[in-house]
């Protein structure tokens, strides 16, 4: 899909050329390394007005210790909902501290405890490193729910972009195995299909994340499997899963000119075919991560309002209320 400036939402058009320039950083390893050097400066940063902590947990697969950030509201007693939040970055970049605004928005909307892993990044640590780190974090949250002050058996899994793809994969394994009970998931514009053969993914030249950067991210993450000629498993790319019937209620949205549009639409349709509750929106003329890059725009405020109100609604329906069915279709 070829994307021109005129296709962008009117509020985004003025940023077109600046975004095109930034795209160049996402298309090569030198740019990715530069972004990661800048990102590393934020490690350890806290959020004013929240209780912020850090710990490390052991890997269950022989990997290095996993650094976790723990965020909770002040002045709350008793158990709160627990959310595993997985940050984005194309599977190659970033750390939890780059996404503190997102963490704060969720906690401010409805109090919860958020655990955010600093998972390993490709190309230095390809699949299954990032997936294992995130799944190990979920298992740890479930095991130590009482100590962490989170409600047992009602965990939430969320993430944006590559973090959304990892969230979808983690939720898929948790529901496949029955090891952890997930109340609902929020894989936002998730990176879930390595095949990149949809209309929106092929030749997408949108400013920001596009087909070229997408290919680079997947190639880095799946390099080990590709070298060995192995089939790509669903826990690496959740769109490859054949059975979605066990997945929990889901919240997501996507821009209509970004590479992940079609795979998100297909994901939503497959959930709905299974009768699974879904809250979904598509935002016209919007690029990848528009609401994170430009949170003050009206279209971004609309996206945040949709996400946070859906999150609050699902907390009431699937965490606080034991009576509502988990297969009520709420598709918009």
Can you give a write-up of this model?
The protein has 332 residues and is an alpha/beta fold. The chain has one domain (5-320): Alpha/Beta hydrolase fold, catalytic domain (Rossmann fold, 3-Layer(aba) Sandwich), CATH 3.40.50.1820. The protein has eleven helices and eight strands. The chain has a six-stranded mixed sheet with strand order 1-2-4-3-5-6, with helices on both faces. It has a two-stranded parallel sheet with strand order 7-8. The chain is globular. The two termini are 25 Å apart. Residues 324-332 have low confidence and may be disordered.
Task: Spell out the key features of this protein.
Rossmann fold, two-stranded parallel sheet, globular, disordered C terminus
Please provide a brief summary of the model.
The chain is an alpha/beta fold and 332 residues long. The protein has eleven helices and eight strands.
């Amino acid at each position: 899909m070829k994307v021109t400036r005129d296709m962008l939402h009117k509020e985004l058009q003025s940023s077109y050329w600046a975004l095109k320039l930034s795209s160049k950083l996402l298309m090569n390893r030198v740019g990715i390394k530069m972004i990661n050097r800048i990102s590393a400066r934020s490690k350890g940063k806290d959020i004013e007005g929240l209780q912020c902590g850090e710990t490390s947990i052991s890997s269950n697969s022989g990997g290095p210790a996993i650094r976790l950030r723990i965020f909770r509201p002040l002045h709350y007693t008793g158990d709160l909902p627990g959310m595993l939040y997985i940050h984005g970055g194309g599977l190659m970049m970033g750390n939890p501290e780059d996404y503190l605004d997102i963490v704060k928005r969720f906690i401010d909307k409805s109090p919860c405890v958020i655990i955010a892993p600093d998972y390993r990044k490709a190309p230095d640590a390809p699949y299954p490193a990032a997936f294992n780190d995130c799944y190990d974090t979920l298992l740890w949250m479930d095991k130590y729910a009482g100590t962490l002050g989170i409600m047992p058996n009602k965990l939430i899994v969320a993430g944006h972009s590559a973090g959304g793809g990892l969230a979808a994969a983690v939720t898929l394994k948790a529901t496949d195995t029955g090891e952890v009970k997930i109340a609902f998931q929020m894989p936002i514009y998730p990176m879930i299909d390595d095949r990149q053969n949809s209309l929106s993914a092929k030749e997408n030249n949108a400013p920001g994340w596009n087909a070229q950067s997408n290919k680079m991210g997947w190639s880095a993450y799946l390099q080990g499997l590709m070298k060995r000629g192995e089939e790509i498993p669903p826990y690496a790319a959740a769109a490859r899963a054949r059975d979605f019937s066990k997945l929990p209620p889901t919240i997501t949205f996507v821009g209509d000119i970004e590479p992940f549009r079609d795979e998100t639409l297909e994901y939503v349709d497959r959930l709905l075919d299974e009768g699974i509750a879904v809250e979904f929106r598509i935002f016209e003329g919007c690029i990848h991560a528009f609401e994170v890059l430009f949170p003050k725009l009206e279209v971004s405020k609309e996206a945040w309002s949709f996400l946070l109100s859906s999150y609050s609604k699902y907390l009431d329906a699937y965490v606080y209320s034991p009576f509502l069915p988990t297969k009520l279709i709420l598709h918009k």
